[in-house]
Amino acid sequence: MCQYIPALDLKKQIAHMRKELDAAIKRVIDNTDFILGKEVDYFEGEVRKYCNVKYAIGVSNGSDAIRLSLIALNIKPGEGVICPVFTYYATAGAIATVGAIPVFADIDPDTYNISVSSIEKVIRKKRDFKIKAIIPVHLYGQCADMDSILKIARKYNLKVIEDAAQAFGADYKDSGNLSRKRKAGTIADCGAVSFYPGKNLGAFGDAGIVLTNNKVIAEKINILRNQGNKQRYYHIALGFNNRMDTIQAAVLRVKLKYLDTWNRKRQENVHYFNEQLKDSGIKTPFVPKYTTHIYHQYVLCSKFTNTKIVYFLKSKGIDARIFYPLPLHLQKCFAYLRYKKGDFPEAEKAAKHAIAIPVYPDLTKEEMDYIISSLKEALHG
């Protein structure tokens, strides 16, 4: 058997930049500016330049980036916010924790992103509360159909927050002009990004950022993230302790320089996987013309139950994963929303059949070949 292949090998990633990282962390320690220090300012500036966005506000994590965005956009308790039912808990969790109501929509079976037709269907349904916003998730590393989503938002006067937690660095191309590219998270009213260690750009702990081109939103989030004060000890709003740690900013500054190279390597790995998996009976990722895919996760789909395939691959030392085994409408914490099994058939199908295999930049050809042969064995053995 090949040696163990993890879902992501951070030790390999860190090894070649260890001296840079050690120096960056030492700089923070020497300056003792651990909260909202200079490195946070520098990192925010570098993100603004990388994303070509006017404002980037470092926060404590991706979940809080969504929550602060909702508050900054004046989403009130009891108001509805549409989000995909097939995503990580944090999207709907952030909606619920501000007192708003998560309103689930189904997914597109090809991209796994929120279904535009499902959004329209959800909006037209009669209910005793008003829908005020949409949070499309750029799942697995590619953008949702933002042109169509923004058109719906304009039609119904809805705010839009991009959950770009898994897609930082992905490009979105306007449908009317494919040569015009914008970074995920910079297209709507604002975008929420996570720098959880397992992301393509990961910190050494929790960290996140909010992207926006709106000065008012940026100023609100700046105040909200820092206990509601603009000037120390003078609190002008009910804020939170959602600041980015300076050490995380220092680490992210080092890693940001490598992000595009890492994403290209992921794309190269995916190209190899796709070629080798032709005619294998497994569905490889579909990427629409309007987006690039940075493959935070390389997700495949087969007619077989994903639990059996994952179990087999793990027995071969391959850390395959299921993202996500239970759609949000069937999670116990959202039982109060009164959804039931069968309400979102595409999400439920994906939960049973989609699997993710390792795709990180440091995979060797030998490791990829071993993953491919093991996967084929699982499918046909």
Describe the structure.
The chain has 381 residues and is of the alpha/beta class. It folds into 2 domains: 11-256, Aspartate Aminotransferase, domain 2 (3-Layer(aba) Sandwich), CATH 3.40.640.10; 258-380, Alpha-Beta Complex (Aspartate Aminotransferase, domain 1), CATH 3.90.1150. Helix content is 39%, strand content 15%. Strands 1-9-8-5-4-2-3 form a 7-stranded mixed β-sheet, with helices on both faces. A two-stranded antiparallel ribbon has the order 6-7. Helix 5 links the parallel strand 2 (80-84) and strand 3. Helix 2 packs antiparallel against helix 9.
Which tags fit this structure?
381 residues, alpha/beta, Aspartate Aminotransferase, domain 2, Aspartate Aminotransferase, domain 1, 2 domains, seven-stranded mixed β-sheet, two-stranded antiparallel sheet, 13 helices, 13 strands, globular
